[in-house]
Amino acid sequence: MKILSQLKTSSFQLALLYMVVFATSVFLLLAFIYWRTAGFMTAQTDQTIEAEIAGLAEQYRGRGVNGLITIIRERVARDPNAKSIYLLTTDDYLKLAGNLTNWPQKAQAKNGWVNFTLEESVGWSGPERRARARIFEVQGGLRLLVGRDVDDLNTLKSLIETAINWGMGITLALALAGGFMMSRSTTKRIEVINNTSRKIMSGHLSLRIPTRGTDDDFDQLADNLNQMLDRIVYLMEGIRHVSDSIAHDLRTPLTRLRNQLENTLMSVDNDEAREQAGRAVAEADQLLATFNALLRIARLETRGNSADMKPVSLGLLVSDACELYEALAEDKEQSFRQELDEEVMIEGDRDLLFQMVSNLIDNAIKYTPEQGDIAVSVRAEGEDAVLRVSDSGIGIPDSEKEQVFQRFYRVAKSRSLPGNGLGLSLVGAVTEIHQGRIELSDRNPEAEPPGLTVSVRLPAYPSDKRTAKSVTANRLSWEDSEATT
After folding, report:
1. What is the pLDDT of residues 204-239, one digit of tens each?
2. With 0-12 CB in 10 A as exposed, 13-18 as middle and 19+ as buried, what is 300?
3. For residue 369, what is the DSSP state?
4. Which CATH number fits domain 307-484: 3.30.565.10, 3.30.70.20, 3.20.20.70, 3.20.20.80?
5. The pTM of the whole model exceeds 0.70
6. How many angstroms separate the first and last alpha carbons of the chain?
């Protein structure tokens, strides 16, 4: 799989593109060399034949036909290997002189030049070889063929072609291997950046991308990214500090204001004044809840992955949360169904997980009308433990499903209902700490309202690490902590 992933990298594709360009250049160069070499050797052969023809023509002009026959016989006698080919015949192809017996009938003529095979049909007694010759007519109706054995030349051309093919194959193989090695080196450095980036995104903001000290382009990129991260962390810390300071500074006077309003509520006898004081106390409680939620989210984002992770039975935890909210659902005459698998285990912080589940169930009850339907389930799906909370409430439009996890963001349909827009922000922060993911979908897209299904997928705790003791301990410790609070 690593090799397949290596082939998909942009560095390997760039190396492959360079290989194609380089191989094409090498092919064109070798083709030019072959064309020039083969053409030069063929031209030399043709020049040799032309020179022999010129000599024979001179002998014919000086000595006539008998002299031509004599000189051909002498040349054949001086060439026992038959590198030169001669054949002088009459008009009806009767042999007069030469080292061939018959006129080559299968010869391919082009501009007076013929290429044929020296074989038994032309009176050749040795092994078959290739020949090239020139044909012209002599006065008196005679036909003369003068040529050369070009079998060695063709063999040399074949060797050159084989060498070019092997050279191209070796070039492609070396280019491919070089591209793979080069892309592998580049991919390793990119993977270092990716691994560090993933760790930073998971909450380790103090990490930085390592450099080699070579001051190459990767080191420069790493330095720029590290400086950008330093700046981002500085700005985030500044914003978080301001937010925390505002929340801390305002929470104390709000608490005092609420206590004073509550004292006023208890001391006044006027019904109208008591009603106004009660509304003021409720508003103060809402403000305090908002500030507490902000501080809680800030603490979660600061903690990153440093939460107290222990094996937890997600089914038991959700069952405890459902017990707290069943009465609230009954008050609104809502159907509250549960399908919980207590064998589903995860590794997480029990307190944070309980807050997350409570927020989801509270939202479902709050945004579902009276006599509505709510379903809570916990089950194992592959390597994930999945918590689903479905309701028949107002739902969330598709265009806003990604935005509801932002702080203070509220769907337009829910603005008239109580809330501060921080519930799902806290759910998102807890899910991120536990390396999970959230999916929002319509419960019934064809209905109006469509309702909402929130699916929280968390990594399941490995089955080989589970023990009955740990499950029992989690349940008891949670019950103890709940009794303490």
Report:
1. 778 888 888 888 888 888 889 889 988 888 877 776
2. buried
3. P
4. 3.30.565.10
5. no
6. 52
